[in-house]
Amino acid sequence: MAKLAGHTFLATLGKKRLRPGGIKATQWLLKEAKLNSSLKVLEVACNMGTTSIEMTKKYNLNLTSCDIDKNALEIAKANAKKKKVSHKINFVYADALNLPFEDESFDVVINEAMLTMQNDKNKEKAISEYYRVLKKGGMLLTHDVCLTKDDETFNKEIKANLSRAINVHVEPLTVSKWTETFEKQNFDKVTEINGPMSLMKPTGMIKDEGFINTFRIIKRALKKENKTQFFTMFKTFKKYKKELGYIAVASIK
């Protein structure tokens, strides 16, 4: 069986939250945005729609959610229908580097765990697109992987090994480099929190998924066809647990 991208693989195991800082980081972002039903909100790289659905239900939003993965979009649509909010979410097939929306269309743009997978040029291109579609005074909310040490040689090793483990090329940045990247795109105020990754930690999984679903995920992970990829990812995240973290950033236009 061919190796899947790490986030796709975890989704096949039943993991619903595929973000490095888990529910804690996402909740911080949503609190920063002070969401309410009058705001126009865009989620870029919505994946299975978990955050979009939660925002819709909690804040009574009508929002737009886009992704470049057609399979993920179909799953997101099915999940929204199951949760009875499909009439409130407009799912759009779109590329973050070339968004099909007019300038200053949204009050809030949220994008989790996607920029890490872009090179520096594409990071800047995506962020410039988010800036373009945000209204003046609007807020960009992002959530990504960060490097905790400013050691260029060691960080190069981490990025190479992490890319191999999750079968996707990744280029996380240090906290200071992340904030510089947003400031470079003319965002007026950049606020961040950071901390240890929870994505594959047992305690983090239980907090994000609940005990029962965590048990189901582990049970599926231990199947013969999944075991090798799961343990490759698990061991890599464990090896670099002090060097890899999450960063959540709120940037105002």
Short synopsis of the structure:
It is built from ten helices and eight strands. About 45% of the residues lie in helices and about 20% in strands. GO terms for molecular function: methyltransferase activity.
Question: What does this protein look like?
Answer:
The protein is an alpha/beta fold and 253 residues long. 46% of the residues lie in helices and 21% in strands. The chain has helices at 6-12, 22-33, 50-59, 70-82, 120-133, 152-166, 175-184, 202-209, 211-221, 224-239; strands at 41-44, 63-67, 89-93, 106-112, 134-147, 173-174, 189-196, 244-252. Helix 8 packs across helix 9. One of its GO terms (molecular function) is methyltransferase activity. Residues 41-138 form the Methyltransferase domain. Keywords: Methyltransferase, Transferase.
Radius of gyration: 17 Å
Q: Main β-sheet: number of strands, strand sense, barrel status?
A: 8 strands, mixed
Sheet/helix structural class: alpha/beta
Task: Assess the beta-strand content as a share of residues.
Answer: 15-25%
Level of helix content?
40-55%
N-to-C SSE series?
A: HHEHEHEEHEHEHEHHHE
CATH topology, what is it called?
Rossmann fold
Head-to-tail CA distance between termini: 45 Å
Structural topology:
Layout: H1 6-12, H2 22-33, E1 41-44, H3 50-59, E2 63-67, H4 70-82, E3 89-93, E4 106-112, H5 120-133, E5 134-147, H6 152-166, E6 173-174, H7 175-184, E7 189-196, H8 202-209, H9 211-221, H10 224-239, E8 244-252
Parallel strand pairs: 1-2, 1-4, 2-3, 4-5, 5-6
Antiparallel strand pairs: 5-8, 7-8
Helix pairs in contact: 6-10, 8-9
